[in-house]
Amino acid sequence: MRPHSARFAAWRGGSLLGKVIAVVNQKGGVGKTTTVVNLGACLAAADRRTLIIDSDPQANTTAALGFPKNPSRRTLYHALILEEPHARLVQKTQVDGLDLVPSDKNLAGASIELVSVENREFRLSKFLEPLRSDYEFILIDCPPSLDLLTLNALAACDSVLVPIQCEYFALEGVSELLDTLMRIRRNLNRNLGVEGILLTMYDDRTTLSRQVSSDLRSFFGQQVFKTVIPRNVRLAEAPSHGKPIIFYDIHSTGAASYTQLAREVVSNGAKRIGQGLERFDPGTGATTGPGVEEGAGID
Fold first, then answer.
1. Cα dist. 241→3, 34, 41, 51, 255 in Å?
2. Torsion of CA 135, 141, 145, 150, to 10 degrees
3. Rounded distance between C-alpha atoms, residue 184 and residue 147, angstroms
4. From CA 57, how far away is CA 54, in angstroms rounded?
5. For residues 253-269, b (16+ Cβ closer than 10 Å) or e, as one string?
6. I need a labelling partner for 127 at 20 to 30 A (CA). Which of 136, 178, 201, 237 fits?
């Protein structure tokens, strides 16, 4: 299936083969699954071969891509615990060029079963290594907690994309998350970078949304994506139909926003790879080092 629009024929930035992006936030309900599903579909629609890894036992990403519950289906659980090869796990979706490693409720047990496993934080990294040459982008939907599933995603990825809901405690929440990411970088993944901070559920009619946007951009600078994801009824409806928004309603504001986000991810990908976390100081909101302006965020 391909969207009937010339929108996706007009852009194809530079190639970023095998880039792994984890979509992470320890808080639930901020738009992680919505972002993974729709960003992945937009990248695939622009002829960027993309793989989605559903690492959340709730399996909402799997359902949103049109896969009903199926106890006999092999999932990420089989990769992490039983080390089954990717050829038996990767599923083709209804979107041309978009594949999925699905999840189900059994994945909830993986965090417990992995506790005694050697190199437990690197099981996903080992699974993804042979897949990097097959895809330009690999997106990981993480659960809303810092458990072994999320740690595996952070150890395996090149960068993190952080969806932030436009609410009162957004700045505090993202500061705490980036502090956690610094610790991960020191201990598990020294090359971990920040893909960007994404404002979700944005409503420009409210003072709160505008204020949160202004504060985050002032604090983190260019690390905040220019694209914002609006509150949009059609975007909320699409998962119940098992379709990404570009196939449910390509003319909606949600579809336009995720198309623009995909452009940003492609065009900014090269310069974002390897961007440091160590210069971010969550205690002051400033970066350190010569020639770096206060409030410049994570460069």
1. 16, 13, 15, 21, 15
2. -10
3. 12
4. 8
5. bbbbbbbbbbbbbbebb
6. 178
Quote the tokens at residue 167. Answer: 């609410």
The structure tokens 């059994």 sit at 106
For 41-61, letters b (16+ CB in 10 Å) and e give: bbbbbbebbbbbbbbbbbbbb
The model's confidence at residue 281, banded by pLDDT at 50, 70 and 90, is very low
The pair of structure tokens assigned to 296 is: 């410049």
Distance CA 219, CA 143 (A): 26
CA end-to-end span of the chain, whole Å?
38
Residue 183 has a CB neighbour count (10 Å cut-off) of 12
pTM: 0.86
**What gap in Å lies between CA 262 and CA 244, rounded to an integer?**
14
Question: Pick from 92, 98, 112: which is nearest to 48 by CA?
Answer: 98
Structure tokens at 262: 């995909």
For the segment 64-115, what is each residue's pLDDT rounded down to a tens digit?
999 999 999 999 999 999 999 999 999 999 999 999 999 999 999 988 899 8
Q: Rounded distance, CA 65 to CA 231, Å?
A: 20
pLDDT in tens, 12-34: 444 445 899 999 998 888 999 99
Q: Are 98 and 52 in contact (CB under 8 A)?
A: yes
Task: Round to whole Å and give the CA distance between 104 and 91.
Answer: 14
